[in-house]
Amino acid sequence: MAVAIDLTRAPEPARPRRWYGQLYVQVLAAIVAGVLLGHFHPETGAALRPLGDGFIKLVKMIIAPVIFLTVSIGIASVGEAKALGRVAGKTFAYFLFFSTLALIVGLVIANVVQPGAGMNIDPATLDAGAVAQYKQAAHDASLTAFLLDIIPTTFVSALTSGSILQALFVAIVFGLALSHTGEAGQQVLGMMEKVSTVFFHLVGMLMRFAPIGAFGAMAFTIGKYGVESLANLGLLIATFYLTSLFFVIGILGAVARACGFSIFGLIAYLKAELLLVLGTSSSEAALPSLMEKMEQAGCARPIVGMVVPTGYSFNLDGTNIYMTLAALFIAQAVGVDLSLTDQIALLLVAMVSSKGAAGVTGAGFITLAATLSIVPSVPVAGLALILGIDRFMSECRALTNFIGNAVATVVIAKWEGALDRGALGRALGGEPGPLAAPPVETDSD
Known about the structure:
The protein has helices at residues 23-40, 42-46, 49-78, 81-113, 132-140, 143-149, 164-178, 182-207, 210-225, 228-232, 234-258, 263-269, 271-280, 287-296, 301-314, 317-333, 340-353, 363-374, 390-415, 421-428. It starts with 22 loop residues before the first helix and ends in a 17-residue tail after the last helix. The chain has 20 helices and no strands. It is globular. It is mainly alpha-helical.
């Protein structure tokens, strides 16, 4: 029997999800549960590390395809290499300025607060073996190797290697080729847009596992290192968190206000992603969701595709604050008096070594090791002083990096005239936006 379907009847609007069904509420509850389990049952908590690692691997599985599709579609939609070059130029100018500013802020605060002063630690008593793996990783990393590593071995390997910059590189090249192949390119573009819809739906599916990942990661952190380890170097942790808060609210907040939006509104809009970053200590865990939400907030797809993935390697505000602050903390703790010339040299080295640090747990520690290995006056073995608390510092680094890239996306979209003010106002005002915001074309002149 055939069933008649009334196609003229409007579908019933989806009922709003109850408060306990909101992702950010579930992630927050999972973090609290993980802290409690790790504190009262540390062995059980430490054993739950695979839950956090597994979730991060799930997300990293789709990062490269999402970047490839988003960037390629965005560039092909722009269709002008000139416009792409202009966006890239503004993006890297912004990154260079604020990354350097973050390094300077960390340096100034370390000199004012002096969190390591008075510890009087003999460098010979430090366990150099505990940081040997980080020293080796820092030694293996060089600027030339970093630049060459951007070029993948094969086109396909860029999507399977896990390298954000390789995925971004092939996406840009493919997008440019797509925009210059006429009708055939348009057909491929249409197919890619459909595939992109499926991938972003997949992102939404995977995000439902975020509470499990956050629970496992937080239970492991507390169970492995203990809440007590926070008190041992409390002044350094407090200084770093407060400095990062000042940078986000004071400096990035002023930038946001100058561009006509509220940093608090942006933070509220991204609360689920920020809690996920807090729980997993990895900003990569929320990268696909950030790209989707920035589009929903009215930023044009080409801008999102260029700024967000690139920012994960070149716009690490939290990592930069940490590097200069931690380097001076170690120097102060072992009694090394760095002159102004030494500190400027440290700053210049950090400007180079901080570029290309991926948004994963431990990357900031490796770049710090790379910086100290080039500045001989500060012993690399001093890293052992902060090894036990680095996991707690990593959470703040990841949160600051994440917010910094979100602000950069909106700012650069505004500069390019590629920002839908109405969509941004609805998103930051708390009103639900559409599933995917329509792309806003960048100027081509």
